[in-house]
Structure formats: structure tokens, C-alpha cells
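Supplementary Note 3. Input sequence used for the single-chain structure prediction.
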Amino acid sequence: MKDMIRYAVILALIAAFSGGSIAATVGITTPITKAREAKELQLSLTTLLPEAESFTTSELDGETYYIGEKDDKPVGYVINGSANGYGGAIEILVAFDGVGTVKEIKILRNNETPGIGSVAIKSADFAAQFVGKAKKEPFEIGKDITAISGASISSRGITGAVKAAVTFLNKNVLP
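The predicted structure, written as C-alpha cells, is reproduced below.
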């Protein structure tokens, strides 16, 4: 009986120490991670809309989007888009000019299968299909977008994420 109590106390001390260590690590690294993510976002925004001198962050219906401005006038918009691919959510940023034409897309996060679904993620030719499309186009595989063979689910996911961003733009930003 004494051994069981002793083992229980030792296990409780180990668990408390482990939990405290994890909490301390999270507390230390969270501000660093948030600062890095903010820096990466700013770099992405300036890459997607290089003509913008500054960016205003706006939020509508729980969705965040960015207005690129030059001389206090909007020159473009960057909107988050997300849709499911084969490996889960694909998150992207879509840059639009002032009238809603797609300028560029950038994939932020994905869990697509390396060597298969990731082909669509890494393909510059696939991403180039979206550039120059107006906000009124269908953005659908088989209509105005050609899927990558062997990565059709990932292609649909990317296309769906772009379409989500276009829909948000049409509905909320440039109705």
C-alpha cells in the first residue's frame, strides 16, 4: 500500500513538472510565433500587391481582408480563401486589383500528399490560370480552370479556395 501511494505521488510530481514545462514553453514561444506570422503576412501582402504603399486590415462577418492603398486610395484587395483538398483545408491569399480581377494567389497552408496533391500546390502553371480572371467568371474545374492530372482533388480545393475569396469580394467588398 505504501508503495502505491509513493508511486502515485511520484507520478503526480512528474505530471505537474511536465505540465508546467509545457505551459512555460507555450507562454514563451506564443509571442514569438505571432510576431513571425505577422511579419510573414506583411511580406505576403507586399509581394501580392507591390503597388500598395500601406495596408488596412478590415473585418466583416468574422472574415479578415486587407485593402492595399496608395495615396489613401484603394489599389487592390487581398482576401483569405479556404477550401478542403485531399489532405484537409487549403488556405490561400488572393490578390485582386481595384476592380476585382485576380492578380495573384499564394498558398499559405495545406496538408496535401507530397508528390501527388502537392503538385497542384507547387505548380506555377496551375496558379497562373487564375491570374487575369474577372470576379464574374465561374472559377470552376472543367469550365475555366484545368485540373492537374493525378491531383484533381487538390486542384478542386485550390479552385474552391479562390472561389471563396471571389465570392467574399463580390458579396462584401465590391458588390
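Residues 1-39 form one domain. The chain has a mean pLDDT of 94.
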